[in-house]
Every structure is written in C-alpha cells, then in structure tokens.
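Bench log, entry 3. Co-assembly request; chain sequences pasted below exactly as received.
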Amino acid sequence: MIPAAFDYVVPRTLPEAVAELVKHGQEAKVLAGGHSLIPLMKLRLSTPSFLVDIGRIGNLSYIREEDGHVAIGALTSHHDIEFSELLKNKLPLLTSAASQIGDPQVRNRGTIGGAAAHADPFGDFPACLLALDAEFKAVGPRGERSIAARDFFVDTFTSSLEPNEILREIRIPTPPPGSRGTYLKFSRRSQDWAIVAVAAQVRVTGHEVTQVAVGLTGMGSHPIRASGVEQALRGKAGHDDELRGAAERATDGTDPPQDLNGSPDYRRHLARVLTRRALEQVTAHH
Amino acid sequence: MRRRVAVTINGTKHEHEVEPRLLLVQYIRDVVGLTGTHVGCDTSNCGACTVELDGHSVKSCTVFAVQADGAQVTTIEGLAQGTTLHPLQQAFWDEHGLQCGFCTPGMIMAARQLLARNPNPSEQEIRVGLEGNLCRCTGYHNIVKSIQAAAKVMAPGAERKAPAPVS
Amino acid sequence: MAISQMVGASIKRREDPRLVTGTGSYVDDIPQTAVVHMHVIRSSEAHARILGIETGRAKEADGVIAILTGKDLKPEFGAPLPVTVCFVPDKKYPNHYPIAIDKVHYVGEPVAIVLATSRAAAEDAGERIEVKYQSLPAVLDIEKAIEKGAPILHEELGSNLSYDVKFAAGDMDAALKEADVTIKQRLIQQRLIPIAIEPRGVLADFKTFSNKLTVWSSTQIPHFVKVWLAVILGIPESNVRVVAPEVGGGFGSKIRVYPEEILTALASRRLGRPVKWIEDRNENVKATHHGRDQIWDVEIAAKKDGTVLGIRPTQWLNLGGYCSQFGTFQVLGMLVAQGAYKMKAFDGRAVGVFTNTTPTDAYRGAGRPEATYLIERVMDLVARETGIDPVEVRRKNFVRVEDQPFTTLLGLTYDSGDYTTTLNKALEMVDYKALRREQAEKRKQGKYLGIGLSTYIEICGLGPAAATQAAVGVSLWGMSVVNVHFTGKATVIIGSSPHGQGHETTYAQVASDVLGIPVEDIDVQHGDTAIGPMGMDTYGSRSTALDGNAVHVSATKVQEKARKIAAHLLEAAEGDVVYENGKAFVKGTPSKAVTIQEIAVAAFQTSRLPKGMEGGLEATTFFDPTNFVWPFGAHICVVEIDAETGATRILRYVAVDDCGTRINPMVVDGQLHGGIAQGIGQALFEEAVYDEAGQLRTGSLVDYLVPTASDLPSFELAATITPSPVNPLGTKGIGEAGTIASTPAVMNAIVDALEPFGVKDVSMPATPQKVWALMHRNGGTKR
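Structure output for the full assembly:
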C-alpha cells in the first residue's frame, strides 16, 4: 500500500498555492489533513502526480467571532472545533458533529476545510454547514469568491470549488440567543461513517418556533436540507405532536442510497426518527 | 523528487532525503529503525501506527513524512525512562492489558493522549477515547482497566511510587 | 508431590516488558540487509482462465529484479499445498499450487510475483503487469454451486461437490414419531474474516552453498511449515528452519502452509538473497483464509415437557476456491453438536462445496462455534415452542454429573463436567428471576430487553495421538524439553508457539512447581524448529492440555533424576530421598538438603554421578493424553433493543467457565475476554460480503466491522474448576471457549427480546436494519 510517486510543494501563502495549482492543472491535488486523500492514494485509486501541501500556510487555523459571524479557518482541525469554547457556546451543533467524526486521531489531523471540499455524502460537517447557512470563502486565480452552502455541495465527492480554488474560510451567521443545535448520528460502530445523521438548529421564542434548520447526512448524493420539516415546524409552538408531524417530512424529496448498512427504506425511517429526536432535544424545556 | 526532512523523534533529531510518498510510519520504521510502531491496516482504522506528532496523536500511516518535516514525534520507544516503564506501560503490564502485543504500542499512545486531555476518565470515556484503535485479543476489558489504573498513578497529586525498573 | 505454588497464581506475564515498549520483534521488524521485496499480483477475477501474463514493461521498471508467474514456477513445486483428512477421508479436492497456473478460482489468488529492491518499486512495477483473463461465470453460493448446470470450478472433479457424509446414531425417524413438537429451522453461519491485527508476513533466506533455508513467518504452525517447505522445495528437512517470531494474533488464520511461504522461499533460492513479503490489510482480507460460511438446516424432535428426543442437522459448508489444509476441520461441528445434552437420536449430514471465494478454514473455534450455535439455538427454539423457560429446557436435557464420563451418540466420551453448577452460578450472578420481572415490566413500556443463555461444552486439547491420527490424519501430541543448566537455572522448550496466549509465563509456572526453581530462572523457548525435536504447534486450544502437560511430565522426569543424584550425593538410599521446593533430602531431615543448584553442578561434573548414570539434567517428552478435554460453562447475555432504530446494546455479559485447573487465572480470563468479544463480533457486526461477480465488498476495515472498545461492555466472569482426569495437570483449553459460547448467548438474547414481535430467529450479524425490519415486518404489530 504505497502511493504512486508524486512531486510535492509546500507553499507558504494561499496565492502561491493557487499558482501551483494553476501551473500543474489536473495533475495536482491539494493536501490538507490528508485523511481522505492519503488512503485513496495508498490504494492507488487516486494517483495525482503533484501535491500542494497547504498545511504550512499561516493563519488558516482559527475560530473567531466577527460581525455577527463565526469565522473558521479552513485548516482548523476537527479536534479544535470539538473543544472550542466559543463554538460550544455559540454553535454546539458543530462541536457535537466534530466529536462524532472518525476517532480522536482522525480528529487531530482532519480539517473542516478538507472535509467540506471532499464533499463526502456521508461526511458529518457538510449537513451541519448546510443547515447553518454557512458561506465558503475560496481563493482562486481570479481572487476570492464567496459560495453559499446551498450551492457548495453539488454531488458525491463534488463541491462547486474549481480545481484551482482553495477554501480559505467558512463563515457561519452567529445564531441568535436561544437558538440551539445538535447533531445526531446513527452508525454501526462509533468510528464509522453515518448511515444517516441529522443536523438540527432550532430557536423557540416564547411559544413560537422562530428558526428551524435541518440538514441530513446519508440521504442522497450530497447533504440535504429537510425543507419539509422546516416548513412544517416554522411558526408552530413546538409541541410534541408538532415535532413528530414535522419529523415525518424529513424524507420529502430525498433519494437515499443503498449500501451494506442501510436500504433506502431503512434510511428514510432513520431520518424521521433521528429528526424527531433531534427536534425534541433542541426544543426540550421550552 | 526527493525532499530533505528533519524530524525529531523521541528527542533525537533525524535528517534524511526521502521520497514525498514515503509515509511517516515507513520513515519511523524503515528509515530511522524504530519498529515499535506497527502497521495493521491501510485505511487508518486500526490505530496500530499511532504516534504523537507535535503533541497530537495521529495515525502515522496516513501522514507523509514530508508533512512531519520540522516536527516533534514521540513513539512508543520514547515513553520509558531507561528501564523504568511509563505508568501506562506499567499498567498494561500489571493489568494484563495486552496479549499478542501488536496493537499495544498504538493503544498506549492513544491512551496517553486520552489521559492528557482527560486525567480522570470514566469507563465510557475511555471506551470512546479508544475508538480509533482495534484490538482483537483482549476484548478491551483489561485495556480499559489498564488505563483506569494508569490514570490513578498519573493523576496530579497522586502519590508517586516509582515503578521498579524492568530487570 | 511438591506443594503447588505457581500453578494457580495470576503472575504478570514476562512477555510484556518487551511488548509494551515496542521492542518485540514481529516478522516485519527483523533487521535484514539486502532484502528483496516480494509483491504478489492477485487475481482480479473470481473465475477465469489465464490467457497470458504480459510482464515485459514491468521487468523494465526501476528496481525490478525478477517477475515470476505460475508457469515459471510450476517445475519447482515438488508437491501441491497439503490437505489433511480432517473428518472427511473420502473428499474430492483439486491440486492446489501456491500460485495459479492456468486458471484462477477466487479474487485474490496469486497469479504473479514481483521481486524488487524496495516495496515501492515492486508495487510500481506491479501496476505495469497485464494479466489477460477469459472470464468464466462465477458461483459464490453453496446451494447454487451444486445445482445442475452450475459453473464447475475444477473440471477434473466433475462437480463442485467435495463430499457428502453422514454422522448418525439412533433412530431419528422414531424420535420424530414420538415427538409432540417438531421444528425445522435454517441457521446461517455467515462468512467471517479473521483479522489478526498483524497481517501475515514472511522473510525467507536461502543460503545457496549450504542448501539451507531459514524462514521467519507470522504463523501458528512453524513445524508444519518446515515439513512442507522441505517437501515442496525438495530440500532435506534437516536443512530447513522455520521461526515464528512474535506473532500478532492468529485466531486460526495462521494455521495453514500458505502460498507466500513457498513463494518467498522459492524466490530466495532463485535469487540467492533474502526475500520478504508483508501482507497489506487489503490483501489480507482476501488472501488469508476466511472462517465459517455454512448453512445449518435442522429438524428437531421434542416432547411438550421440553425433552429433546433427537436432531437432524445438515451442515452445508462453503470451502471456497480450493480445499484448504484444514479446510474440512469445521465438520468437527457435527461430532460435538449434541452439546451438553442427552438425546436418543442424532442424524447429521455434512456437505462440502467449492465456490469462487477465498478458501475457508479454521477460525477461532472451528466447528465448535457452529455446533454450539446450533444446539443452543435448538434449546431456545424448543423453549419457545413449548412455552417452557429456556433455563428449564436446558436443565431437563442436561447430561448430569452422575452421567460422567458421558458418551455421546456418536461415540465421543466427555472427560468431566458439571453443567448444572455453572448454570446455577451464572443465573445467580444475573439474578435471573429479577431480570425476567424487569423484562416484563419494560415490555409494558415498549422497551425490549432480551436474556440469552448459552450452556456450552466444547472439545479441545488435540490429541490423543491415535484418535487424531484417525480423525484428522495427523498424530497430535504435546512436546517439551526441560533442561536444567549447570547453575541450576532451566530452559523449557515447547512444541507449540503462542501468539498472545502467554506460554512463556504459564509453562514456567508449571516447571517451577515441579522443580522448585523460581519462575524468573526458567526460560521458555518456542516457535523455532531448530531448538526442539518436533512440535505439533498451536491451534484448537491445545497448547496447555498438550504441551503444558508435556512440560509437567518432562519436569517430573528431571526431578526424578535430580532425586537420584541427590541420593548419591547424600549417600542415602534412593527410596529415602524426597524432592521438595528445589531441594532433596532424606525423609525427615530437611535441614541436611542438597539444592537443585548443587544437584545441577553434579549432573555436569559427571565423575560425581552414580555409576552408570549419564551426565546432564534434561528430559524430553512426547505427551499423549488418554482423551480429549471438554471445557464447559454457562454464559448469559442481556441486551436492550432500540425499537425505533433496531440497534442492539449489550447491557450485561456474565460468564461462568470451567477449563479445569487454571495455571494462571489472569491469563485465562484474558483469553475469555477476547474470545467473548470475537463471538459478539460475529453476532452483531462482522460479515464478509461478496458482490455477484465475486468481488469482496467488505474489503477493508472500513466495511468489515471489527468491534471497537465502545461497542463492547465489560465482562463479568466467574469460574468453577473441574480438573480433567485425562492429563496430570487437570487442565482443559480456554483459547476458544469465549467465542464458542458467546455468539449463541447474544443471539438468543436478541431473539428473546423480539419475542413480542413473533420473531423466532434472527440471522447474523443482527444489524440494526435487520432487527428493525423484523420488528416491523407486520407493520410493527405485536403478537
């Protein structure tokens, strides 16, 4: 299990990195934490002849709040997200998801930017970022652009990043006070990819659900917003029967895959159950 | 296509010209000659190759040696002081926390990180903290006990009874 | 006899300091200069003719030394790979060579080897090899393989049927007539991948001008490998040395003479250089044999009071692409399927079939897990059908203490066992009655608790020699050499080699008690064919019952000689001298003793010995017991099922095991922990799955689910001790008991939890999806 030979460069700045990608075209791939890419290279399922290691570019690992947003550098590790006090307070959905990715060693090495760019339909962060209406700041040969989460995750292992673009930052609108989030993941073993997982962010103000966002993992070729659930719950009081009813709509418009761990039917069922449980959790004691 | 890397392993600086595709675990084992770090899978599931890289436990089969250029690496060989075992090594020995021993170095390195982050873990926290390391011999029962025992010894303020050197 | 001090003591393992410091030496850790790396090109096809192998471009690649195919190597094979009798003397099987020559029969079969200066160079060159195949239809399924018109793997055999044999006694038809209750059930033993955490590896070093071969292999059977390397390569056996260094787990997966052992040795002979091959996990999942993959169909005759009158099991075995070395060993399941119970009739049949899959062979338990799963599920099926508690059904049918030594319908005799006591103890530990009440309460709240029992027996400790010669085709015995050195320290050499079982500690404990030499002064050596006369190696939980007892016998012989020397030194009559705790003295005067150190010095200062006595203080034993040994126990598993997701959580796991004398209880418990975990793995997680073309879909540890720490509970263990009467130590085996017992305990618990849904059986592994589907197959309505 030895990767095919490749050449390697360690740029110190993002523009340098982009220039390398432009120079080497399709032969080049970006290396961040490497936990998606290196296993594929060892199996020689991926054989790039040039790797651009962005791991040493400064100032890409941070979590900070600014202008009503939480900004997370693309090279921030899953571990740093899991243990961030800021995120525990403002975005527990993300810390909850981070703590359920792979295992501690993987979380030390894996980065949120890498996970987003890899666009694995079974990855944990994409559904969260979709539910949180994240904004992706990407740097390319023509400068920086901003991509909305709903436009970012296109298909299995396909994001809307151009091959010569690199993710710099993920920005998430800071949820208003009282908004609560959680990530519920169902898998055979805890280190496994999700069969289905649900990211929920809900705010109940007084006796009214004023914000509800639900993202689904494992229900299609990319993460999905459960808009049926959101429509059904928005403006309601958040009573148990309303949560149950809304959760039933988790499968609206989904086309879940079949694999060794779950049939489409089972996935639909799990999506409804996990959605209900997530909604119950984030609306409890209201 | 070779690159120069300088990696400090267990306090000793090593410098070599390596192919970029050389994995950190191959560097540690085949180039530096520290064979206590093992390889048990290709997909970063088994954790046998766990080492610490700049203070974080990582699976060295999923890191290129060039990515560790300039880094501090600790392997299982770096834990004992002379012939005195690290408390985790001692606890694995005392509690029969190993059988064939192949997963053990990675397991101990993962446990070290676990205790560094949570010096007094519950049984469940230990089990969850070992998610990245597979053992086929022990059913994890005595591994959990070993880590609990080590936690007691390593706890801040614990009465340190120096473990006897291995004869 | 000396007072036993070390036997029974949970002393720490002397293996561990090197292993916890990473300084143990597994095959890949052995330093070797100028080593050539072998990379095996494996079939990408499940069933195909090899039309040609294009190696020209690969040969030109950097670092390549040679590329060899089956056609190149065929003239060098003195014999095909071995196949043993293993309960089926009249089976049909093809010649199996270490590398495919004309045809491939499973994905992963070797088709070419690349020898290069580095592993990377070998893999790079491998990418340039083109194998031209003519694809043939593949057959993967046991039943389809024996249908008319099925693609035939080995044309020379005429069909895919290897054997169809009966194991019957008593009148099953009469039992069915007498029965109030008859049940038919199909039980599936899914295919498992053993996954020792150390994959296999081989380093072979052939010295041309001395015609000598040394092979280091991650194997359970260095002695078997030595014999077959000699036969296949045509080298005198005396010139072949095989070393099993540290071995990182085996579980049966390392008990074959494997193709790569032959291929590295042949390559080393050709090149005159050491050749190394280290298995990737990616290869391991298809190149190392698989386990189980059987279908058991059973017909049960029982009375309404729970008495089982007889069973009629048919065992369908998937052999894979070839008959592996011990490939029919699993038929042993037939011989022990009667379990801990009396009955009148047993009508068994075993059918072995070739398919285009990785060959199957022994996997932890080999035959006994299958048999135990059968009979323990039978007990629960009868309980369900008659409405009697599963505990009572077992009690009703148990072989009682007064029936021991009990002879089964098929003529095997149990050595000892008290099944009621282990069951009672386990029931007490879980507070069975309270648990049943809790279960009833929880059901009312829509929560599903399940309680599963497994009151297993198993057979291990192979020999005896005559019985194993007849049944397996090899005379199996235990071997030891005990040698006391000049300074009174001792070396013990054994014929079995551990891969985690702790022999270096436990056999020193055995010798220490007999000789009175401290454990730290006794070195136990193993796993090297150059150090002892011969060994029968490690599998089937045999080491302690055989080699452990051989150590006891050799040490006793040495003690006897020491006593004679002491008598001479003390100028006393032999009959008056006793030996205790490392000292010999005239009965009644222990103050005037000679120590083992003084005796040892005399043994080598031969002028001080009695007339006619040879020097040295050494004994060799080939130990042959009078019977097999039969461990037993009672396991109880308590599960809770999440009715919404189908997920199973183990709440408690209680086990009471009896393996006779426990030399080191700590080590025994460790074997049980790991064994139970592996059995739980089969029940809940593990399954090798092929797609229709014969490609393994569970080809890595991402998809083949080995349980992790957070998937398992802590285990609650207890013991009873019923010494075996068939060997001097009274030991049985414990390496596989946990696995044998736990799978049915877990599955019985799951079926029990699903009783309100009318579920009578759940196939393994009990995945959340499967359990959920069973709960909702009638729209979720409860019975």
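The first strand of chain B starts at residue 3 and ends at 9. Chain B is about 30% helix and 15% strand.
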